[in-house]
């Protein structure tokens, strides 16, 4: 597998480590729990941070609905003071990442 942090000369992908501060209202769900509103505060092609997600369980996959996108899957990597850091099951394509950032203003 190619290291996504080292794009080749013809590679137009954004490195997975590119992080952008955003403020996007989305919905998240773990397992069979109901959908909850959440604020996405940090985004990269490889993952995101949600500022507050009470009762998050690291062992349960997370689903996230970002307005205008298909349902995305992620895993929780860390929980600190109610905030959660997550990794997408599949990294966002550069065009999708850039679209979300532009739409967030």
Can you characterise this structure?
This protein has a six-stranded antiparallel β-barrel with strand order 1-2-3-6-5-4. The longest helix is centred in the last third of the chain and has 11 residues, at 94-104. β5 and β6 (83-88) form a beta hairpin. Helix content is 10%, strand content 41%. The protein starts with 19 loop residues before the first strand and ends with a helix. It has one helix at 94-104, and strands at 20-30, 36-44, 47-50, 62-65, 72-80, 83-88. The chain has 105 residues and is mainly beta. The protein has a single domain, classed as Thrombin, subunit H, CATH 2.40.10.220.
Features:
PilZ domain-containing protein, 6 strands, cyclic-di-GMP binding, Thrombin, subunit H, six-stranded antiparallel β-barrel
Q: Any idea what the CATH superfamily is called? A: predicted glycosyltransferase like domains
The top level CATH class name:
Mainly Beta
For the termini, the CA-CA separation is: 33 Å
Tell me the count of domains: 1
**In terms of per-residue confidence, which ranges show pLDDT below 50 for 5 or more consecutive residues?**
1-14
- Based on Cα principal axes, name the global outline: globular
Q: What would you call the structural class?
A: mainly beta
What's the mean pLDDT score? 85
| H and E string | EEEEEEH
Biggest sheet features: 6 strands, antiparallel, barrel
Helix fraction bin: 10-25%
Total number of helices: 1
Number of strands: 6
Give the strand line-up of the largest sheet.
1-2-3-6-5-4
* Binned strand content: 35-45%
CATH fold group? Thrombin, subunit H
- CATH architecture field: Beta Barrel
Which value, in Å, is the CA radius of gyration?
14 Å
